[in-house]
Amino acid sequence: MTLPPLSREDLPGGPAGVTAWLAAETASTMDDVRELGRSGAPDFTCVRAIVQTGGRGRLGRAWQSPPGNLYLSVLLRRLGGPGQPVHQLGFVAAVALADAVSALPGLSGAVRLKWPNDLLLDGAKVAGLLLETGGGGTEAPWCVLGLGLNVANHPEGLPYSASSLAAAGYGGDPAACAAAFLTRFSMARDAWRAEGFSPVRAAWLAYAQHHGQVVRVQTAAGMIAGRFDDLDDSGALVLDTDAGRRVITAGEVTAAGTSPGSRRDMAGEAA
Question: pTM of the predicted model, to two decimals?
């Protein structure tokens, strides 16, 4: 793989130890960071793109990536210890993102998290996260975290509601959002490594959309309805159903009485 032209980026207010690169245009920041990881780049190396031409989200969905939004991927080599599976980092990142967005100046609206990886603002999707593992063989494991955040614009005509930070009153730019997220995520990862998943789960549930409500989850085995009760230690969704408690590891959540519909993602269920 050939990397696109990259320039070093200064992210004022970002965390110490970050190596930030900027691409004017690239196919996917996830792929760029994966290539940097194979080349030995250090922990917390990140690539931000102005435009992506082949961005992807969860389950391989295409992610529209016009200019004005945040497309960011981060190399993570400092993972968890025993009993801290890598996928918990997706929930760590989600809480960090929700905290960062909630603190942005001028922003109005309720920030919520939708299982497993969406950020909502007043019920409309504004961001998504994607976590992919790397390494293997004789190479130490690492992973790539991708973030797509609708800063300046959002898609129209989707089967679900989408919005942007600008539409909610935020006047900043993607670089400022990147710095705010990376700062929160750096601290949150350190706390997770030291304290485990329980505080992360509690923080995630405090932001959770539909927590305590009846939801429907479209899974590979069919539709399951129940009250959204909890996350387990793996981050799986725990439902109270008529047939008892069910643990869901993958699926599409909707409020009871709505249809999951078809989906076409924009600008980064991951970057």
Answer: 0.90
